[in-house]
């Protein structure tokens, strides 16, 4: 059995344990020697970050070939239209190639914790929320995808990775789950 740590990474925390520039890191919240992030979550993004003490599980979750679905709630600058949603669902052309098709739908303003610092927003600014599911993990992919269809990301919160979700974890909180790793048998 491997251990998997589900951590709600706060805004402006690095997904690593050290930083030569002195920014907030995982070490400010976790004291779990031997645990490493299975994937990454940008400094300016929030939400679910998985960590494990098992290298095989880490590889299984983080490897792009596993096509693990990641679910995000995305606050957008502007009211997203059907054409932009369709483009996200087909795959978006980025500088590093076309993305895999995403699962995209608009959602009502989600019940999330307040972000610190808050998003700068004027009363007359129009926003929308999107639930976006992707099965790859390119650098800043969600932000680049929404910008490519004309709707820059204001806030980005990952709420699930595969079968694991935040399930009520507040920013900076975590829980540990035991995960059964199937044994790979060698062909005879």
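^ Assign residues to that structure.
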């Amino acid at each position: 059995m491997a251990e998997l740590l589900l951590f709600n990474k706060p805004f402006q925390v690095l997904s690593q344990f050290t930083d030569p520039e002195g920014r907030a890191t995982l070490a400010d919240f976790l004291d779990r020697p031997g645990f490493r992030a299975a994937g990454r979550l940008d400094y300016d993004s929030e939400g679910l970050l998985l960590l494990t003490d098992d290298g095989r599980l880490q590889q299984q979750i983080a490897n792009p070939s596993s096509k693990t679905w990641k679910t995000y709630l995305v606050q957008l600058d502007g009211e997203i239209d059907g054409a932009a949603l369709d483009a996200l669902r087909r795959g978006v052309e980025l500088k590093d190639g076309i993305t895999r098709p995403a699962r995209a739908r608009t959602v009502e303003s989600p019940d999330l914790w307040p972000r610190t610092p808050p998003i700068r927003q004027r009363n007359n600014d129009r926003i929308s929320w999107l639930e976006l599911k992707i099965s790859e993990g390119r650098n800043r992919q969600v932000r680049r995808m929404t910008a490519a269809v004309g709707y820059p990301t204001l806030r980005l919160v990952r709420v699930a990775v595969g079968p694991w979700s935040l399930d009520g974890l507040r920013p900076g909180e975590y829980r540990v789950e035991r995960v059964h790793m199937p044994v790979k048998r060698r062909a005879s």
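The chain has two domains: 1-68+162-188, 69-160.
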